[in-house]
Every structure is written in structure tokens, then in C-alpha cells.
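Dear colleagues,

As part of the handover before I leave the project, I'm documenting each prediction I ran so the next person doesn't have to rerun anything. This entry is a single chain, and its sequence is reproduced below.
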Amino acid sequence: MVQPETSLKVAAAVLSELGLSNGQLDKLHTLPVQTLIAAGTAAMRKVGPGGGGGFRVFQRRAGWGPTVDGKILPQHPFNPAVPAISANVPMLIGTTLNEFAGGINNPDVDSLTEAELAGRVKEMYGERGGQILAAYRKANPTAKPFDIFSFISTVPTRHNAVTQAELKAAQKAAAVYQYLFTWQTPVLDGRPRAFHCAELAFCFDNIDRCLNMTGAAAEARALAAKVSEAWIAFARKGDPNHAGLPKWPVFTADKRATMIFDNKCEVKNDPDRTERLVITMA
């Protein structure tokens, strides 16, 4: 979460953009929303973390968000340790296959060549790029170049979820269950893939309300029935298992059971471990 010193910098930068002093905070209530948004965006560019590629676990946040003040938010969630306050609360955690590297806003994603892919990965990871690309290509021999790029780009988000599950399991209190949502949307010729938040319409069984995300296809409705029942079961009893899914084991340090949500739902143990560790263990 955001550090107090970072929050102070952000607040000062926003006030500077607006031409206000600390004694004029009441004027914030009189400004148009778009003015505040523009000032906030400009401030973030000035005080946000620097660029740079590579893999980072639990990257420090610098934008709008909860601040670790030692009182209301006493520590960073799950960093460096799992919070004791929620020890007895079961956890359900997961990610989507493509997260933030889908092609929703780019009609040319599938024109990415192998050479361009290699260049992108090298830009992200330097000389280690070739080794990383080889590992993902070996694990996904028929995948398109853009899909390989997407898998690699998603590793920080995916690894953080796995790390949280590991810490929760090590606490040996309440159960933790992990999922990976891999269902590919048919909208926009399938370019978005399994994008960030793609599973939410399925969790709440809102396929038709979210047809711009799901295409309102029959297969989407069938999967939503399974996913939403799992969420209901988890909310009721802290266990997502129900008759419509294969047995979903508790996540443990040795097996790392992961429910794969797709047209065929199945459990795999740490499904992308080999290639993911090529990035995260360096």
C-alpha cells in the first residue's frame, strides 16, 4: 500500500497543480471533478515511481490508495507477513490468464512476430529475455507470439497471488483456495483474451448484463453457473466446492492446487510453476 511520505508528496503535488495552499483545502469541494482528475493525473506523473522493466514482487504503490498509517491500516497486507487480524478468515484468490496484456484496444495484436516478441521480452528483462522466452515457448509450443507476451507480462500479478496464498497457507489457520480464470471472450474477435476482471461477470452470474464482455454466449452462461455457485458456497461456508465442479482442494505449500475456470473446469497443481520461476527466482 501507499507509504505516508508518498501520500504527502501526492497531496502536495495535487495542491500545486491546482494553485492551492494547505490553508485552502476547503476549495477542493468547489472544483469540477474533471479539474481534480486532471490535477491528480499530472501529480502522479511527477511523483510516481520511475520506469524500468523486470519483475518486482509487491511493487511499492504511489497512486491513490490506502496509506499504511500504523493505525487504521497497521501494515502492508501480506508484506512481509500475512496479517494476524484475518487469520481465521478463509481466502479465495486468483487471477486471469492475460490480465493487463489483452488486446482489447489493439486490433493488430495477432500480427506480432516472433522477432518483435523477442525484442519486447529483452526490453523487459535484458539478457535474460532469451531464457525466459524459451521457457514460455517450451510450455506453450503452439501459442501465438502475442499470447506468449501476455503470459510473461502477467507474471508479477500471478506470482503475487501465489505468494499471498502461500503465506495464508503457512499461517495454518483458515483455508485458502486459488483459481486461474482462462476463459477467452469471443468479443472483438477474441482479442481481449481472459482480461483483467473478466471473471467478475461469471462470479455474479451477470453474463447477459455484461454481454459486451462475454458475448452472452451459451458457454459463458454454463461457466457462470459453475463459478457463481462456487462464490456462493464460499460466502456461505468458506469452501467453494459444489456439485457442479471437480473437487477443489485447499491450497497447500506442496501442491498449490489451482482451479482452472474455462469451458472445461479442472484442478491443476501450480500450473505454470516451471516457466514462472524462470522469471521470479532470478
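The mean pLDDT is 92. Strands lie at 91-96, 176-181, 257-261, 266-269.

All the best with the project,
I.
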